[in-house]
Amino acid sequence: MKKAFRFSVGFIILIFVVVYIGGVYVFSQHFQPRTFVNDVDVSLTKISNLQETYDSSYKDFELKLIKRDGTEKVQASKFDYIDRLEEGQYVEQNPFYWFLTLVVSKNYNLEHNLSIDNDKFLNTVNDLELLKVEVVEPQDAKIVFKNNKFEIEKEILGNKVNKEKLTEKILEYIDDSNKKLDLEEEGIYYEPVIKSDDPNLLNRLEQMNKLNSFEITYDFEDRKEVLKNEELVNLYTANGNNEMVPDVDKAREYIKGLAKKYDTFKTNRNFYATGLGMVKIDGGIYGWSTDIENSTNELVKALENTQTVTLQPVYKLDAMSRSINDLGSSYVEIDLSRQHMWLYKEGSLIIDSPIVTGNPNRGNGTPTGVGKVWSRERDRFLTGEGYKSHVNYWLPFNWSGCGIHDSSWRSDYGKDLYLSRGSHGCVNTPPGLMPTFYENTFHGMPVVVYESSTQLLK
Question: Whole-model pTM?
Fold first, then answer.
């Protein structure tokens, strides 16, 4: 038994000795596994053929580009990629220690000369299918409004390549004898900045959907503007802490939009002229004029409160009605062409009278437009260049000094008297009618002045 054991041990030792000697012999002529020279794998090649092995290493070298939609190869031979060892270069490899270094990676740096045809290289890069396809630009993930709620629309990766970086990496990988270049891993694709899992984006989405729970209504009597959903939430912006807060500038622009749509101050109006039809009237001092800053402040407060509410703009100037017909049913109507005036109160005709207006031939024509009674005075003198007249009733209706008053110095009214004996711009009214006229007017009452001979719509 002992003899058999000794025989077995001896046999095993013999095998190890034979294998060791065999390894010494083989690795005295061949490179060990995992041996690299300047990153070129020379494992198990003949040591004596190092120059030839190294110099031919790039003859059939191909670099595989791993793209988002497939792969593509770059052949080093297409641009004459040549890497040669300097004469006399060698690698010292001790074959007697082969069993200790067999699985250890060994990389030797030797003097070598590397060259490429630069023009061919650039042409090779430009010929890549990767750079010939239609470019799809990367797009950030964003919040969109769909089906009455906000949601995230995923980013678009696209396929746009950083050509400069691609060129650098191709040469770098070939120089290092790496055979696979993953464009995604190396960051060669241009990437969206914001992706759908971005914490700030998710936080903003949650806030926007909370803000989507209320609305603000602006009441214009026969019309309403409802501020809600996307339009409302767009009036907020994220502050430095990524909190959605009212944006004063955006709120101001919204108010300006309302003013442009609904203000009537100095705008054109179509007016139904008594006994004629529709006339077009431009300008005047009557109408609604929004106070932009104060209206903006009220809107910002409502946005901060996040409660459903009905508002009206704050006005610098107001009118009788907030509906499309802002004149209401009580107004004074004056036709310069017919030299006639009507007073309507709550839809009923109170005064129907001939008048005498300003003399246009002397530059004193009464201005057309929609004015308003901005003062009601008794027993005063009207003065001007070359005149001073006492009146019992005075109702100014524009900002150029024109008004409606009694004229005790006149006995005739109407016809074409204004062309020769017209006033300095005021509306001369028969004295007997003025008490009734005065009693049925009020501050802010519209005064519509037109010239039917030129302003009547066909």
Answer: 0.73
